[in-house]
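User: Earlier you gave me the apo prediction for this protein. Now I'd like the version with S-adenosylmethionine bound, so I can compare the two side by side. Same sequence as before, with the ligand SMILES added.
Assistant: Got it. Here's the input I'm using:
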Amino acid sequence: MELLTTGNSAKLYCLNWLEARLKASTTPLTILDLGAGTAGNFVTLLRRYPTTHYTGVEPSAAACAEARQRLTGLDAAIINAYAYDSVRAKLPFPQYDFVVSFSVLEHVYRRLDYLRLIRACLKPGGYALVNYDSGHFQHPDLKERIKTLVGPLLARVGNEAYYQSFVREADFRRMAAQAGLSIVEAKSFNTHLKGVYKHIPEGQRADFMERWLALEEWLNTSAGIDYTDDQAAHWFTRNFILQGKN
Ligand SMILES: C[S@@+](CC[C@H](N)C(=O)[O-])C[C@H]1O[C@@H](n2cnc3c(N)ncnc32)[C@H](O)[C@@H]1O
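And here is the structure of the complex with S-adenosylmethionine:
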């Protein structure tokens, strides 16, 4: 069967995790995607489970237009906004079964407020899947260096489009707790195999993705590695599953 995404083991892990729950559910479920981009991660999943509702929140108007086009015919809404408290009034549902945010937190200026929104939008018993990337801050080329320097300055005047800063483990855990979220699972994905993916011939890519994800899942569960920030040079993505604290 077609993979839900390619080229990113963290996103494939999360989409597989979501698919298992959509498949097992006897009632339609709802997904809120914060920093949805063009919603490309969700097209295959939503086509496979068309009773699922998807809301994407995205500050780029151009990305929203593309997302709306890609999701034509599906039960989806795209809201053009930053993902802070003010967006709640615009959402079709007050709370969701799943709140996801892939590769966004490193761009977010007000991170505690962002995590508070995730908590507020979770149904009781719902799950949040949040991942963020370190790659931009490890070996940045000139363009990424400039974006990282300029990002926080532009954010102060309302443009949060660029990278802000590396998300430190202790900061994430402290902010998640402050936002009322408890960590159910913490994993790391996207080793340097992410770079190898680009060189794999088209016909071998699905096989490569499955082997890549299986290896990284083994590294997370059975290899006995305790993550620390200095490993961010080897794992480009940190991936959390969270639930609201009672
Ligand atoms: C690297 S893209 C990831 C897009 C998508 N989640 C994906 O995985 O393909 C990061 C996205 O975060 C969005 N973004 C940045 N700051 C945001 C904020 N405060 N709230 C919501 N989205 C934000 C950007 O506009 C951009 O589309």
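For your comparison, keep in mind: The longest strand covers residues 122-133.
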